[in-house]
Each structure stands twice: as structure tokens, then as C-alpha cells.
């Protein structure tokens, strides 16, 4: 396995996009569970909380990095999405990027800024 195959800009962009899509699906599922991450809901044993918490923080950091990379590629690529400049695509893209950056900040600081704002606790 050659790492340079996976670090090409188009490959990184694709992997970042797939990660962001998976993150959004998992986040939607978490909303149906009452805002609890699915891993913590499924494996609700106290002995696993440290391990699962660490995995969640790592995945949140990766989400922030992936969203930042997608934003960078969008800016460098002429601000086009899927080969065109559609305002609906841009709006959805920014929701995805902002939520991913929010998760990255949550992984770093331990505070979900988006949830704090929505619950009036900054």
C-alpha cells in the first residue's frame, strides 16, 4: 500500500467528502436518540466510556480536519461544487462544513459550541 496514492488532492477530497457524509448520517441518527452519540447509546457500559470517549474525540477531530480541507478545496477550486455554482449546493455545503468544524472544535475544547448556542449557554 503506497501512501502517496491516498494523499493526492482528488483522493483526499473524495475521502473528506465521504467522511462528512457518514458524519451527517450518524449525527441524524444521534438526533433520533436524543442527542446521544450512537456508540454511547449502543455500548452503555461504564467500563467502555473512556475508550468510546477517546474514539469520539478522535472522530470529531477528523471531522473538523475533513471539513476544513473541503472548505480549502472549495476556495482553491473556484468556489464550485460538483462542477457548477449552485446556491442550494453551496448552502448545504456550508451547513456540512460548519457542523464539521464545530465537531473539530468540540474535539479540541471539549465543548460543542453549536449545541451551546442553540441552548443559550455560551
TrEMBL record:
This is Uncharacterized protein. It comes from the Bacteria. It comes from Candidatus Zambryskibacteria bacterium CG11_big_fil_rev_8_21_14_0_20_40_24. Keywords: Membrane, Transmembrane, Transmembrane helix. The chain crosses the membrane at residues 24-43, 49-72, 92-110.
Amino acid at each position: 500500500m503506497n501512501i502517496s496514492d491516498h494523499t493526492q488532492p482528488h483522493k483526499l477530497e473524495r475521502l473528506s467528502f465521504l467522511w462528512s457524509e457518514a458524519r451527517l448520517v450518524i449525527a441524524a441518527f444521534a438526533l433520533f436518540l436524543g442527542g446521544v452519540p450512537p456508540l454511547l447509546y449502543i455500548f452503555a457500559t461504564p467500563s467502555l466510556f473512556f475508550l468510546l470517549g477517546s474514539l469520539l474525540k478522535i472522530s470529531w477531530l477528523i471531522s473538523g480536519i475533513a471539513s476544513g480541507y473541503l472548505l480549502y478545496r472549495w476556495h482553491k477550486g473556484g468556489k464550485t461544487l460538483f462542477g457548477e455554482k449552485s446556491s442550494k449546493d453551496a448552502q448545504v455545503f456550508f451547513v456540512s462544513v460548519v457542523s464539521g468544524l464545530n465537531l473539530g472544535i468540540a474535539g479540541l475544547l471539549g465543548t460543542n459550541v453549536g449545541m451551546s448556542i442553540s441552548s443559550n449557554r455560551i
